[in-house]
Design goal:
The protein is mainly α. The protein has helices at about 45-50, 55-60, 60-110, 115-125. The radius of gyration is 48 Å and the shape is rod-shaped. The relative contact order is 0.03.
């Protein structure tokens, strides 16, 4: 018994016996057509993702996964190289700073060990050292 006057439209073999009404949508799975009249795939099938289910694309899945793995490895390699490069730059900057400090100290040491500066330092510190006018004599050992 059908309520509200709806009739069973299916025949004995399961197919529709009559055409559906205009306000009713067909029931069942409808496969979208990914290929248009010219034989090319439409952009709608590409954007919806239906193109990924075709057999010609599915057989390339291992290669695509391999390419993705290579891309990830390359990204990691580039990241580590950039990190090493940044560390090298900081080490070079530190080396330049230490070199400049060492050069400054060596120039101050050379300036401090000049004869005139040594005499001035002795006078300013009031150390009782006098300069000899005669050079030192070398004592030789006399052999018998």
């Amino acid at each position: 018994m059908n309520l509200f006057g709806k009739r069973d439209r299916k025949s004995k073999n399961g197919r529709q016996a009559t055409a559906p009404r205009k306000d009713e949508k067909p029931v069942g799975a409808v496969k979208p057509s990914a290929i248009n009249e010219s034989g090319r795939r439409s952009s709608k099938s590409i954007f919806s993702g239906d193109v990924l289910y075709s057999k010609s694309v599915r057989r390339h899945y291992p290669f695509m996964l391999y390419c993705c793995l290579l891309i990830l490895l390359y990204m990691g390699y580039v990241f580590t190289c950039q990190q090493v490069q940044r560390e090298e730059i900081t080490c070079r900057i530190e080396l330049q700073r230490v070199r400049s400090k060492a050069l400054l100290y060596s120039s101050e040491r050379l300036r401090a060990t000049r004869y005139n500066n040594i005499v001035e330092e002795i006078e300013t510190r009031k150390i009782g050292i006098k300069q000899w006018n005669t050079p030192p004599q070398v004592i030789k050992r006399i052999e018998n």
